[in-house]
Every structure is written in structure tokens, then in C-alpha cells.
Amino acid sequence: MATTKFRHVFGGLWGFATSCKKNSSTPIGSRILQRDVEKEEFQYASILCLSKYYSVFVVRLAIMVMLAILIGLLTILTWHFTKIYTTKSLNSLAYDLRYELLQRPILRMWNILNSTSEITMAQVKLSQYVIRSHGNLTTQENQVEQMYEAMRAVTWALFASRKALNSITVKYNNGFVQAFHRDLKDNNTFYIYSDLANYSIGASASSYNSDINYSSLSSQESWNDHDNKSAVWYRQPLDPVTGEKIGKAMQIAPEDSIHIAGLSQVPDGVASWRVVVSKFTDSPLLSAALPVWDASNKSIVAVVGVTTALYSVGQLMKELVELHSGHMYLTSLEGYLLATSTDVPLLTNSTKPPKLKMAVDCENEVIRLGAEYLKKSSGNKFPPSHEVHVANVRLGHDRYYIDSFFLNLKRLPMVGVIIIPRKHILGQEDKRAFKTLVILISASMCIIVIGWVCILILTNGVSKEMKLRAELISQLEARRKAEASSNYKSQFLANMSHELRTPMAAIIGLLDILMSDDCLTNEQCATVTQIRKCSTALLRLLNNILDLSKVESGKLVLEDAEFDLGRELEGLVDMFSVQCMNHSVETVLDLSDDMPKLVRGDSARVVQIFANLINNSIKFTPSGHIILRGWFENPNPCSDNANHLMEEKNLQCAQKTRTRQHENHAKRTSKRDNKAILWFEVDDTGCGIDPSKWDSVFESFEQADPSTTRLHGGTGLGLCIVRSLVNKMGGEIKVVKKEGPGTLMRLYLRLDTAGDATEQHCLVDIANNGLVVLLALHGNMGRSITSKWLQKNGVFTMEASEWNGLTQILRELFHTRNSAGINNDFDLHYPIHESLKSKLLSIQEIKNPVFVIAVDIGLLDLSTDIWKEQLNFLHRYVGRAKFIWVLNHDTSNTIKMELRRKGYMMTVNKPLYKAKIVHILEEVVKERNHEMQKKNMDELHESDYTHCDAASSDDSDISESGPCNPVKSEKVEQFHRLSLYRINNCLIGLTDEHSEANNTPKKEELCQNNQNSPKSLSLEQDYFPREAHQGEDSESRGKEEHRIIGGSARPVNGKKSLEGLRILLAEDTPVIQRVATIMLEKMGASVVAVGDGQAAVDALNGLLGVEDFRRDSNLNERNTRSSSSQTEILSFPSYDLVLMDCQMPKMDGYEATKAIRKSEVGSGVHIPIVALTAHAMSCDEAKCLEVGMDAYLTKPIDFKLMESTILSLTRRTIS
Amino acid sequence: MREKEKERKEEISKMDVVTQMQRQLIQYTSSLFQEGFLDDQFNQLQQLQDESNPEFVVEIVTLFFEDAERLLNELSKSLQVEQESIDFRKVDAQVHQLKGSSSSIGAQRVQRVCIAFRNFCEQQNVEGCLKSLQEIKQEYSLVKTKLETLFKMEKQLFAARGSISR
């Protein structure tokens, strides 16, 4: 009940509160107020929580109290009822018992009375008979004597038959007395008679009769007394059985005699009863008297008296109450004791003759007290036929039951009293009841105590729980605060990212401008360069810190998009190789063939991981090599021969491979659906890390050796970011023990493999084509890895590490073939190794071999002019072998020119990794096939290294853009477009440095106009290699082969980067509109500016329509529909790009973009849209990308960033 | 000869004047940057100025003045106290525009006040908004006078240079 009440109250409160909250929160839309409301709500919730617990506590308490009360009540009730009922039943039982008990002696009494009266009656009848039979003989003495004799016999007979009789007396009217007496004490029987003084019975009888009738009683008494006194009495003992006289008659005094019933006792001639006492007995006697009438029934002849001792009644009573230890007594109506159950004397001995005692004078205390009690309670007048039943009377020390019955006998009313100690009847019961009560009370006490203890414990628990809850609440609050503060932190960082990066970008940009200025002195130039370097470093550091905080605050959301892992890593190695070569360190990429080509994940972050690792390695590796190994869930791919064998088999039967790989793949990834574990190792030969620092190097601002900071710089953030990112991708990174000097970092990433992970190698073309590759490369590691890989794929390889080795092999190869034995003297100087010999022999077995010689330009002696001689020497073999020149990034132009002059078109930039080799070899194979078809074809196959570069990093697309799966390539393209901005941001630090370090060759690398499709590549192409070459991919592969890229060094700045682009600018603020327009125009683009989103959509829609129209009518130029814009209206057939402000009147940028994308559906057109926004938050970025924009620029507009973004987006559409 | 010398001297003195003016201009500009009236965006604008549009900066800044004045008028209109309910969204949009344009010319002090203004707007704080409006007006007039002075100086310099080259 209480609980529901509480609940009700709380429910009411809650409802009220919520309604309050609703009322208060609805009108206020502000975020801050809402936050306040939330806070209040939170506090309220905590209060509610507390009060709830208090209520629970109270409820529990109440329940316990109620329980205790209930138990107590139950106990008391049980006790009460049991007690009452048992007492009642016992009482009734006791009553019955008492009644019964009392009834017995009364019955006995009654019996005694009855028998006495019967005997008296019998005696009377017999006497009458005898007297009648001797009638009229009164005068004659002998006849009288005779009659007395007969009387005596009759009386004896009667007396003898009744043993209980005390005496029978017959007193004749003439004064003669005949009596039989039985002395109960000594069991003697006596015959008592008087001396016969007068024989006239009748006369005396008449007088007697008249006396009776007329005389006063007193006179009669006196007569009688006189008679008696005057008479002489005798007592003769008799044999108690036979009645024979056994002794001599003794004369006794009349007063000594027994009580003789006289005429006085029958005053009105009827039977009378009385209790008498005799001096022979100590107990009262009951005597009955009856007159004997004569024959005529007119006069009394004699009086018969019968006395019976009441002793037996007392005896019976004694017996009866003996068991119950009670007391019983009979009193006369006046209160004289007749019989008791005790042995106390009933007669007062003090007086002569003895008299009956009153009950109240009884020597027995209990009886006396009982009698007194009765007397007190009912007064002297004992109510006739009224029974007294009193229970629980205190007599003396004990309690007694007192019951009295009234026995109404004629002339002798009697009262029977029974006193039974209560203890006897209810003693046990009382004890039990007491015990029960005690037990019950103690039990309930126990229960209450236990209950309280329970409550105490419970409440203790509750209070503890409440404390915990309170703590929890406070902790929640603390957590909320912490979250809020971290929120502020991340917000702060997000703001900072903008605030910090923008000025840095501006600084760097301005420095670039300054550096390109010609009028700087050398000193200034050096200073500016230094500043630029520092700025770049600062930006990188900034980016690192921001990345780290982003990861740590959990804000970093990994992108989930498909990307080509191999290509990313190749690009990375390309980038770093330049830096490495300056350090004379070899960079090798060694990816196992079973690596899935396409994986899903955040490409930018993956690249960042490896960029950081490689950067680190380069920093600490003064010489040697850096190897980036990668394999697919295989602990040891490089030394696992079984795996290699399997791979070889795979190559032989591609179909089988596919199935098996699929099986393997399924096995590996069955547990985690489609998640592949990719292992990577970055192995360097640097100074290494002390094993004790292997764990700590991944902590932030931690470097293995603090002293290196001075030497190498760095903040120690790189590895921390790496670890965070790796962990975020579900992987781990650790430093692994390595043989030899250096560090071996091993990590694995858990990436989703793209649906069709069983990629096909294009090596089928290369293998079994009789290719013999001579690798004359400088770097040992790279060469051996490449060679091993080629051999594994069925290509015969030979290796040479320096010029002499190369010449020797060349001699062996070609001179032994053409003219054996010429080179004898040469052999003497350079003995051929056995292994080489066997190789040569095996080569000779190859039918129609194609020799491919990859020559590192570093093998030539470039310091002097000897290289020209060496070149000429090699040129001798040009007909017999294909030469591939592996160039360094700093290879001078003269050498390149020389090579080109000599007609070597296959040049490739270091590092030489698989994709490049595959591409080159494919080219070679194709060329050979081509030659075989058209023997006389003079066309030179030129292949610029740039092209190779491009192709290599694009090789996945080459294979993909074939007819087999165009859909996929498109998908990839889509993804690239989406991830563009991110990549841009991410790589800016790296690429900046890269481009800066590699300034000169980069410029040279820039592509020029193609004959087929005029295009301009700028510096940005290297920032986004894939994007840049996407356009080329869309070209057919056939073209690629014959494409001639002419010219060498091109001026970069002379050309406007956005030449020919038509850009639609949607911006409402006139200032920004103007600025952006000028900027774009400065870059060479043509700009149409509109004032709002609607105008932009209209402009585009109109153009779409125009395009359709143009397609039909071949109309090449048509003015664009003029927008309502106020500034500038230019006419262009179509737009290449839209710059869209996000916040505009009428229709904002998001809406406009949605509308544009909607209208594009089905037409296959995708116009790049770049968002312009003043918000620098990532959510805005996400929103922009979500509505279909391709990239994202923040205001104020950064010149360079805009340029690069636009370029990257327009590259593919230009072609 | 003498005349020539005189001319030379004149020229030299003119050159001195020009260099002085130039120095003054540079000093003034740097003071503007130091005091935070302008930021590097203004530099970018100056970078964009070339032979094809020699008056670019002036043009842009004039545009900014027009735009800002219009916006300020609108703002003070929409923030009138006697108005029953203030359309904060509209105010926000206007301030946003002003922020965009001021950031585009590099008037960063105005831009900063705009940011504060927008915060007040978000809180629907009328007093804060009015305060910010006053601040913006003040900053705007300040930057306007500064820029006008700058342009004047530039013009003078240009004129002086022109006289020399002539």
C-alpha cells in the first residue's frame, strides 16, 4: 500500500517535471539553453534517483515493521485462543469432575439415608406386627415378656442384616428399652435393655397417646426423661454374628447408653431425621425415628430409632479426593460439619457431651477458609437449591475451585462442598500456557529482532548501493564534464586545424612566390629556402599533432572505400626513393603476389602509416637498404618455399590457382567475414633500436635515443600516430628482432578485401616467352629480390652489380653464341663462375630467347666522360637485346639526351619494382610480337620514363580497363574522386617535401601536350598521381603504346595551369565572387559567376540542354544563358567545374548540388562541384561530400589549394 | 650643363621623395598588418593585381565597402529594438556574408567581430548582437579610413613615380 502510494507520488512528480521540461524547452531553441536544460534534467534525474532510493528504503522499512507487527499479533492471537479454548474445555471438564466427585458422597449419603429409613420402616413394621400378634396381652407379664423376647429376636435379625447400622433402639411407651448397638471402634455388639418396671403397655400407651395429643412436649420429655433416669439399664455383649449372649449383662447408666430415640423425636408421629453425636463415636451419627402405632392406629406403642454412622461417607470422600488432593465436606444447612474428606475431628471435644463443629471452625485450614469464603460470599442464608461454582479462589497460598451443592433431604437439608486446588486441574495447563506465552513472545521477539537485523543489513546494503549510485552519478557527471571538455578540445582542435593550417599554407605559398621571384639575391634566396623548409616542417608537425589528437579523441573516422594497396605503396616508394637515393639508401618494395589487389579501408591513413615508418627508417639509415615487405596472412613468405612452389603451380594453371586461392582465402577469412590480415614489414639497416625501447618507441614524444633528436630532429610523434592508426585498423605493430643491424618493424592490418580478391597476375604473358633478363643494377637487395621474383615467375634472370660483371656476362652471352673461342684472353682475366656458366648453358637451351638488359645508369662511370664509351660499348648489343635504362632522379639531361639520341626509349626511374618490371616486360613481349608480325616496321617504340612511371602506378587500371570489367574501374574512379580531398590534405606535408627536394626533375617530369589530346599537367600531377593518370587510363591501351611524348624540359610557370577551363562560380558575396574570379582568371580559367544556387542550377541545366542540342545540330558555339548575376556574364559552351558557395540566398549550395546531381542522373555526366565554405569543420566536409560535391575549399580561398583541387578534379574530364 | 645638373638634382630629390613615400607606404601597410587590421588575404589580393587589372585591389575593396555598408544597414534594420521578434536566422546569414567578404579582403578585425556576432546570434542574445553591431560598425569605419588612406598613399606614390618616369 505504502509502496503504491509512494510510486503514485513520484509518478506525479515525474509527470509534472517532464511537463515542465517540455514547456521550458520547446520555446527556447538555442543550443546553450538546451544544454542547460539537459543539465537540469540530469540533475533532476539524479535527484529523482536518490529520492527513489530513499523511497525504496522507506518502503522496505515499512514492510519490515508491518511484518513484525503481524507476527506479533499472530502470536498473541494464537496464544490467546489456545489458552481460552483449553481453559474453557478444561474448566468444563473440571466442572464435570467436581460434580461427579461431589455426587458420589452425596449418593452415598443418600444411600445411607435411604437404608436407614428403610430399616427404620422395616423395624416399625415388624414391631407393629409383633405387638399386634401379642395384642391385648399387656397386662399379663409373661405375655409381655414373651412379646419383648419376640421383639428382641426380630430386631436382632434386622440389626444383624445391616452391618452398617450403628444401633437400633425400640422404646416402648412403658419405658422399656430394647436396643442393639454396634461399637464400630472395637467391633463389639451389645444388647442394651432396661429394667422392666411397668408391664402395662396399653395404659401407658393411652396416656401416652393422650400425652401426645394433649400434653405439652416438655411434659412428655420430662416423662420420658424421668423414665429413663429412673430405669436401670443393662448392657450385654453379644456375638456379633449369632446374637448369642456371650457376656454378662452389665448395668450401665442411662446417660452412658447410646442415643435412644424417644417419643420426643417423633412429635407429630411421622418419621424424623437428625444428626446426633454419641460419646462412643467421634463421628456424627444419622438417626431416624419412627413411631410404632398400635393396631387401631390410635396410639404410639413404641418409637423405633435407627442410627447410622456417617463415618463411611467421610471415608468415601477421603478416597475420592485423595487422588485430586482436594477437600470435600458436607455440612448441615446450619453449617455443622457432617463429613469431611480429612481426618480432622468433627466434634468438639471441649464440651460434654460432644457437639458438632461448625465448618468455619474446622481445624483443616482449607476447609475452614473455603467455608469462610462461602459464608462471606453468600451470607449466612445459604440459598436453597442454589449451587455455587467458583473457580480460582485464593485460599491461603493456592488457588482453588470451590463448588457446593445443596442436598435437600426432608428434615435434613445438607450442603456438599468440594474444594479442589486449581493447580491439580489446570496446573499443567497454566504452566503450559505460560510456557507457550513465553515461547511465543520470545519467538516474536526473535523474529522482530531478526527482522530489524535484516532491515539493518538491507538498509545498509541499500545505503551502500545508494552511496555507490551517488558516486556513479558524480562520476557520470565528471565523465560528462570530461567529455564536454574533450568535446571542446576536439572542437578547439578542429578550429585550430583551420586556424593553424591556413596561415601555414599561406606562409608556404607566399614563400613559394617569393622563391620564384628572380630579383632575390642568393643570400635572400637561401634564407627564404630555409624558411620554407622550416615552415614545411612546422606544417608537418602540426599535421601530426592534429592527427594524433584526432585519433586520441576518437574523432578519426576511417574511411571505408576500395583502394589499390599495391599502387599506393608503389607511389609511396617512388616518393621516398628520391630521398633515399640522396642518402645512398636503397628502397625496395617487396609485396608478395598473393596480396589482394583491392582492399577496403582508408587509403590515406594506410599510406600515412607507411610514410611515417619509411620516413623514420630513412632518418636513421645512413646506408644500406629499406625494404617494405608485405604479404597476406602468411608468417614467413620470403623463406616459405612451399608457398613459392604453390605460387609456381598457380602460374602454370591459372584456373586451378583461382579455385585454390579462393579456397585458401575462404579458409582464412571464414572466421572474420572477408577481413584479410595483411602483414607488413619495414626493414632497414639503420642504427637500430635498443630492445628495451621496443615498446616505448610507440609512445608519443618518445625516441629510442634522445640524443638522436639533435642529429635527426623529429618529435617522436610519427610512430605514435602509426600505432594509433594501426590499432584503429584492427592491427598491431611491434619491433621484431632482426639479424644484422637495423630495425625490423612488423605490423599487420585487418582490412576488408574487396569482393573479388582473387586477382589475376598479368605475368602469364611474361612467363614462357623465352625472356632472359639481365639485371645490371646497383642495389643488391632490390636486384636480388627482383631476380628471385622473376625467376619464380618463369623468367630467366642474370645479375650483375657492376660494370665489369655486366660486360663479362654480355661477352659470355653473345660472343660465345656468335663466335666461340674469341674471348679466350678475356676469360683469362675474368674467369667465369661456375654458376654463371651453368646459367649460360641453360640459356643456350632456350629457343628464340629475348634478352632484356636492365642497366642501372649508376653502373656507368658518370664522373668522367667514360660513360660515353661505355654507352657505345653497350650500343653494340642493341640489336640483340632490349636495353632498359634505369635512371636516377638526378640523372643529368645530357645523359638522357644521349640515350634518346641513341634510340633507347625504354627508360625507367628508380626504384624498380614489380609493377614497373611487369609493364616493361609486357612492352618487350608485345614489341617482339609486333616485330614478328611486321618485321620491317621502323617505328620506334618510345617510352618515356614518365610514361612508365605513370603506367606503373597505374598498372592495375591497365589490366582493369580492359573489356573484362569496366564497371569496376569506374567504381575505383568514383572512389578516388571522393577521397581526393582527404588525400590532398594528408599528403600535403609529404608531397611538399618531396616536390621540394625533387624540384628540378619534377619539373621535367611534367607532361606536355599530347598530339591527340592537348593537356597540361602541372605540379599537382605529382600530388595526385592516380588522379592525374586517370585520364590517360580512359584512353585506349593501344594508343598508349604509340603515344609519343616529346620534348624535355618545359617551363612550368610560363603556362597558366587552368588554361581553357570553364568554371561556374556560384557565390553571393560580391567581394569573394570578385576575388575568386580574378584568382581563377589569373590561372587561366574562364569564369562565369552567378549570385545564388538557383542561378547556378539554371545555368547548368541550360547548358545541359545546350549540350544535347549541340549534339544534334553540331553547333559548336553558343552563348550560355545569362544568369541573373550582376557581375559578369561570359559565354561558354559548357562548364568543366562548379565552385559552389554553401551559404547563399534563394538556394544554398547543398540544395543546388543536390539539384544538379539529380538532373545528371541518367545523362552520364558528372560535373565536378567544389564546395566553398567558411566552416572548417569536418562535419561540413562530410555534408558537402554527402550531397554530391567532389571537393571542399575553405574561405578565405587559398590560391594554391584551389588550383590543385581544381586541377585534380578537371584532369580526367579534360581528356 | 648646369641645367642638366639641376635636372639631375631635381630628379634625385624626386627620387628621394618617391623612396620616402614608398617607405612610408610600406611602414603604413606593415602597421596595418601589425595592428591586425589586415591579414595575408590582403597580400593575396595584391598578388592578384597585375597589368590586366591594375585597379583590382581598389575595386575589390570598394566592392567590399558597398557590400558591407548594405549589410550593416540591413543588420541595423533587422536588429531594431522596437521590433517584436528578431529573425536571427536572417541576421546570422547577413553576418555570415559580411564575415565572408571581410575575410576575403583580409579585414580580419571585422571578421573577428563577425565571429563573435554569430555566436551571439546563435544564443539569440539581442544585447550582444547590438553590441557586436556597434563594434562592427566601428571596426568597419576604422578599416575603411585606413584602407582609404592606404589607397591615397598608393595613388600619390604612383603619381610621383609617374612624374619621375616621365
UniProtKB/TrEMBL annotation, chain B:
InterPro entries assigned: AHP1-5/YPD1, HPT_dom_sf, Sig_transdc_His_kin_Hpt_dom
Domain HPt: 53-160
Gene Ontology, cellular component aspect: cytosol; nucleus
BP GO terms, sorted: cytokinin-activated signaling pathway; phosphorelay signal transduction system
Keyword Acetylation attached: yes
Residues with Phosphohistidine modification: 96
Subcellular location(s) per record: Cytoplasm, Cytosol; Nucleus
Keywords in alphabetical order: Acetylation, Cytokinin signaling pathway, Cytoplasm, Nucleus, Phosphoprotein, Two-component regulatory system
A GO MF label: histidine phosphotransfer kinase activity
Keyword Acetylation assigned: yes
Main location: cytoplasm
Superkingdom of origin organism: Eukaryota
Gene3D superfamilies: HPT domain (1.20.120.160)
Role: Functions as a two-component phosphorelay mediators between cytokinin sensor histidine kinases and response regulators (B-type ARRs). Plays an important role in propagating cytokinin signal transduction.
Domain notes: Histidine-containing phosphotransfer domain (HPt) contains an active histidine that mediates the phosphotransfer.
Protein name: Histidine-containing phosphotransfer protein
The organism of origin for this protein: Arachis hypogaea
